Structure formats: C-alpha cells, structure tokens
Amino acid sequence: MTTLRQRQKDAIKQMLNLNQPLTKLGTSEPSWKILVYDRVGQDIISPLISVKELREQGVTLFVQLHSDRDAIPEVPVVYFCAPTEENLGRIKQDFQRGVYDIYHLNFLSPISRDKLEDLASAAIEANCVANVHKIYDQYVNFISLEDDMFVLRHQNSDSISYYAINKGDIKDNEMELIMNSIVDSLFSVFVTAGTVPIIRSPKGNAAEMVAQKLDKKLRENLFDARNNLFTGDTQSGNFNFHRPLLIILDRNVDMATPLHHTWTYQALAHDLLDLSLNRIVIEDNAPKGGTRSKHKPCELDAKDKFWNSHKGSPFPNVAEAIQEELEHYRSSEEEVKKLKSSMGIDNESEVAVTMVTDNTAKITSAVQSLPQLLEKKRLIDMHTSIATAILNSIKSRKLDTFFELEEKIMSKAQQLEKPLLDLISDSEAGMPEDKLRLFIIYYICAQYLSESDLKKYESALVEAGCDLSPLVYIKRWKSYAKMTSSGALNQYEGAGTKTVSMFSKLVSQGSNFVMEGVKNLVVKRHNLPVTKIVDNLMEFKNSQEMEDYHYLDPKQLKLTEIPKNRSPFHDAVVFIVGGGNYIEYQNLVDYAKAKTTAGNAKRISYGASTLNNAKQFLHQLSLLGQELQ
Q: Which CATH architecture has domain 144-254+529-628?
C-alpha cells in the first residue's frame, strides 16, 4: 500500500515537473525552474522533500513569495501557495512588474471562481495572459510528518487550536470558518489518498460538526459527474472492500494525555526540545573563550534508520542503542586504521609506494564504505547530542519522578495523598509547569476530591510558583464532563506501566550512556482513551458507547444505519479536532502492531488539526482559564 506521505510527495514532484506525469526513467534531464512558495507551502514541502531532492527535480532557486525577488527572464516559475487575498495580491504585483516569463500557478487548495476571475483581470491588465501557462488546484493542504501521521497546519496554527475552538466568546461565523478550514484540509487528505472513507464521530461537539461537513463535501464531489476527484476509487471490486474508517474525535475526549510526562524518544523530543516539522534545534554550549552558544539544527527524516527504529522506544532503550551503535562504529573505524597501517600509510602525508593486488581490493572496499561510515558517525553524533539534551532535562527537572507518579495515577494504582504534596512542595523537583501538569492529571483522574484537600493542593501549587489559570478551566471542563456523563473521566483504569525503576538507573549514571539491566524490564503496554475508542470502532464491538457515534457513508445516497454484521476494518484514520500529540500517536502505532497478525495487517494513521506539546497545551488552557476568572 502506498502511504499518504508518499502520495503527497509524488503529487508535489509531479507539480515540480510542471504537472507532467513523472517518467520512470530518471535519466532525462529535468527542466530548470524557480520555486516560489508561501510559508504554508514551505511547511508542506520541508518535511517531505530535501534540498538535494529539489535540485534533482530541477529547482535551481527556491524563494519566499513575500521576499524581495529579482526579475529572472526565460525560466519557468512554479508558484506553490494558498489562494489567500494577500498571496494573490503579490502574484498580481509580479504580473505587473513582469518578474518572470512563464508562470505555473499551483494552489494548495481550490481557488474560488471570484478570485480566479480577479487574477485573470490582473493578467489582462499587465498584458501577460500568454505568460500564464497553467493554473492548478493541488489538494495537498496538509503536512505529512510520518508515513502514518499528518497535521493540518503549522504556521498560524493558533487559528484552529483547542483554544480557538473552545474560547468563551467565539461567534458562530468564527466557528464556521474554523470548521470549514479543517474540513477543506481533511478533504485534501482523502483526495490525495484516493479513497472515500466511512466516517464515525461522537455526537454533540466540534468533531460532529467536522464529520457532517466533510460527509456533505465528499457527497457533493462524488455525485458531481464533471468534477469527481475520486474516479480511481470505484464502487466495485477491491476498492470498496478496503475503504478506510475515518474516526473524528474531539480533544475533550482525553485531557490528561496531552499533559502527561512521557518516556518515548520522539515524544520526549517534542516535549523537552520542541521538535517541530521533524526538526530540532539544539543549543551547543559556547566554546571555551566564546560567549555565544551555537544553534545546531538536527533533521530527523525517514532516511535516518536509527530514528525510524527507535523513535517509539522507551528512552533508556534508546540510550543503550546509541551506545551499541557507537561501539559498532568504533570497530569499523579500527578496521580502516589497521588497513592504513598495514599499507604503511600511518602518516597522512605518506603515500604507499608498492601496491599489492590484495591491498588494492582492500582499498577499494574501504573507499566504498567510507561515505557510509562518515554518515553513520554524523547520525551517532546527532542522536548523542539529542539524547544528552533530553537526559539533562530529565535530571535537572527530576522528570522520572513525575513520569512514574503520573503512570500510577492514570492506572489508579494506589492512594498517592502524601507523595503528591511532597513532590509539589519539593523545590528541587521540576519547574512550576511540571507540577501543574502532574496535579491536573491527578485532578482529572480522581473520582472525588474534597474542597479542603483541593485548597491544600492549590496553596502548595501557588507556593511552588504555578499560575492556576489552567486549573480554573479544567474544573469547569470536569463539571461539564460529569454532567454529560461522557466516558472521559473513567477511561484511565488499567493503564500504567508495571515497572517504575527504569528511569532511575539512567538518571543515576551521569550523562554517559551506560545502561544496565534495562533489557529485562517488563513494560506493560496500555491503551489510552483514544486507542480504546479506535479499538471499539474498528472491531465493531457493539457496546452502548458505540451507538452514540454517527455512522456516515458519503457513497450512500441516503443516511445509513450501522451494518449489523460487518467485518472489522483493517484501515483507519484517527483525526483529533483541537490538537494531537506524539504520545497518542505512539500508542496507536503500538496498538496496530499488537493487532497485526499473520496475513492480517492493521493500518492506522493519526492526524490532528495541530500538534501541541504539553507547554503549548498548558498555555491554551491558561488563556481559557483567564477568560473565566
């Protein structure tokens, strides 16, 4: 199965090939062109296509639409941007100034009739109609971060964030705009994937609005004979049988997980180092005598085998794997050194006079393996610096203690009255935001908390320097969740890990990664609330809860009932309105792996309107809390 990410990449490469189908033979010389994109277009391309690949596609120069650009005649220019008033204004300006001779305009999502007519008038006025060769709607308005993960927006993501959807004074037309923006991007996802999903969503929240609007949009397109974008997805045969299930959920279904201190590599990088569009910037401490620290960007792409294998692993296992990679590299390096000395090239400047055939073969092999060896060294160095930065944060903030306590709380393991207050009052442990995150998780998961206990905790939090605005909002949210008796409050039973000593060994070792006894630790995998819902819906577990979910099939002319004896789904796309996180994503990946049996693969993709780490999510809760005060 071609992944969504690969399909999006192919669509963009075809666009760069001036919308001509890509030939299988990569030998033909590409036509040279300039790429002009807006910020949104840049966000879509940067995690997908490297600079080297852009060069291979014949892109000699790539520039921001709103930057100062010089006129370059006789070279085709490919525009890749959203059809906003601001962007179209700048394109008209380019027409007026005659910046380029050949224009290929590609819009991320469809341009409206009015705007297109407006653009045509501008081209006539500037006398450059003949220069505009093609205008395309691309339907790629989303960002693929992984083969099985996408987000809708990175730039200006605040406009479709949890705060934007839940703020108190939101007007109907604002809500309508947010929902339409989410639906347009989701529609692009399925046009790119080439399939029409069956949609399930809970009733009575933002997810329901998105589901119904998307259902309507898909229906209108399917039954419009001239503009049907899903001609490949035929009614008969395999296509219909393998249709994916789209599960649209609201962030309110689980408010504890986005604040949880985590322990897997990718989620820790997002939480502590602000992983963004598959890129981390690490501050290198200032060199001796220097005053400024250097910023070192680290690209974490699909070609990085170590990242692919270990992004979902518990951090102590990652530390051990880095150690093993380092030892493996050192042994390869030793071989090269031995080869040099056996040929008498110990000193770099000397050149061996005699060349024995045996040695020639050795040299050839060494020369061939050198680039791989250097790349391996670069990746080891990069992951060592990322892991060291994570480890330093864990140690300085005592995050292992928070992680262990939260796991116990979420698994309802035992009464925690004493240690929780102790940790909040411990001036050595964590930052104020860590303590607040811990307490909010406790508050969400606690069945009952007396007013006097709550006051005790609140004064301890204030003393620890916490701003309690997020808690004000969570109190309101919890009372509302109780009223609607949604399962949001009792979903954490049975969660938690069996072991809690796994961080402590790593933390006590100092910053060198010497790991002992990690491999034999048993980790109990548990399904988070979102994963439990996905399991129920994919497997058609007919519980009462599942009756509360809409069942929408855009291919059916009339509204459909849930089929009584349908076989379980193999493919699902889980979409969170109001922001997702890497903890949920990893939990679904683990669930799909566990469910995949011989000849029966489960494929689950995770999508979200935006991607927030705990700090960003806490900030949104804080804004909502301030509105209530």
A: 3-Layer(aba) Sandwich (3.40)
d(CA 233, CA 57): 29
Domain boundaries, given as residue ranges, for the chain: 4-140, 144-254+529-628, 279-388, 399-508
Tell me what pLDDT residue 204 has. 86
Give dist(CA 433, CA 618) in Å, integer: 8
Structure tokens at 468: 């309690």
Neighbours of 87 (CB within 10 A): 21
Distances (CA, A) of 239 to 230, 231, 235, 573: 11, 11, 7, 16
Q: Please, are residues 190 and 197 in contact by the beta-carbon 8 Å criterion?
A: yes
- Give me 271's structure tokens: 């939480």
Coil vs helix vs strand at 603: strand
**Is residue 330 classed as helix, strand or coil in its secondary structure?**
helix
Q: Do domains 4-140 and 144-254+529-628 have the same CATH topology?
A: yes
102 DSSP assignment:
E
Residue that wins the pLDDT comparison between 597 and 560: 597
Q: Is residue 515 predicted with pLDDT exceeding 50?
A: no
β-pair type (198-202, 59-64): unpaired
For the domain made up of 4-140, give the CATH fold: Rossmann fold (3.40.50)
| Whether 471 contacts 625, CB under 8 Å | yes
Cβ 527 vs Cβ 486: under 8 Å: no
CA atoms within 13 A on the CB side of 493: 4
Least confident of 64-73, 107-116, 205-214, 292-301: 292-301
d(CA 126, CA 164): 40
